[in-house]
Structures are given as C-alpha cells and as structure tokens.
Amino acid sequence: MTLVTPIAASALAQGSRPAASAVKSGSGSGTITAVDAKGGTVTIKHGPIPTIGWPAMTMTFRASPPTLLKGLRSGQRVAFTAKAKGMTAEVTAISPH
After folding, report:
1. What tens-digit pLDDT sequence spans the chain (97 residues)?
2. What CATH number corresponds to the domain at position 65?
3. Is 25 exposed, middle or buried (0-12, 13-18, 19+ CB in 10 A)?
4. How far apart are CA 48 and CA 56, in angstroms?
C-alpha cells in the first residue's frame, strides 16, 4: 500500500503540469497601421515571425519603452523585434525600413 501525503501529492501534480509559457522573441517587418503614443502601443501589419510561431497578421504591440514610438507614423514600413509570452506581446526595438 502506498501512502501519499498532501505535500507529495501536490509535488506530483505540479510535475505533471505543462511548463508556464516561455518568453519568445523574434524579428519581423511590416507596415504600421496605427500609433497610440499616449497609450504606448503600435499596430503593425506584419509578415510571419517563425521564431515566435506567428503567421502574417495585424496586431497591436505595447512599446517597451514607449519612447520607441517617437517619430513613427501610420503607413510607415518598419523592422522590429518583439517579445511574446502567451497572449502578451511587446515591441522592444523598431526602426523605419
């Protein structure tokens, strides 16, 4: 007969859970469709970013830091670096392309 204490049972349960979402990063290029300097976000229509597992799409990113958005405008082509964890994404570098 095997006796499992609550602490051991908890440890066993944790060991069988999938790991928390890891932070992934990658580079992409696309066209800015909106800039919200006050909100600290930029929306980019970009191509696939395989290192993050994203297909081509249009999405809004938080800028980290928000000063990255200075001088950017809608319609501008850009190259950027993004980090993603789960459904949260942020741009960590961006420049006109």
Report:
1. 444 444 444 444 445 444 556 899 999 999 999 999 999 999 999 999 999 999 999 999 999 999 999 999 999 999 999 999 987 899 999 999 8
2. 2.40.50.320
3. middle
4. 4
pTM exceeding the 0.85 threshold for the entire prediction: no
Beta bridge partners of residue 26, listed in sequence order: 82
The pLDDT of residue 21 is 67
Q: Is residue 14 part of a domain?
A: no
- Structural domain range at position 75: 23-96
CA distances from 78 to 1, 6, 42, 74, 95 (A): 64, 54, 11, 10, 5
Q: How many domains does the chain have?
A: 1
| Helix (H) / strand (E) containing 8 | helix 6-15
Collapsed DSSP state (helix, strand, coil) of residue 7: helix
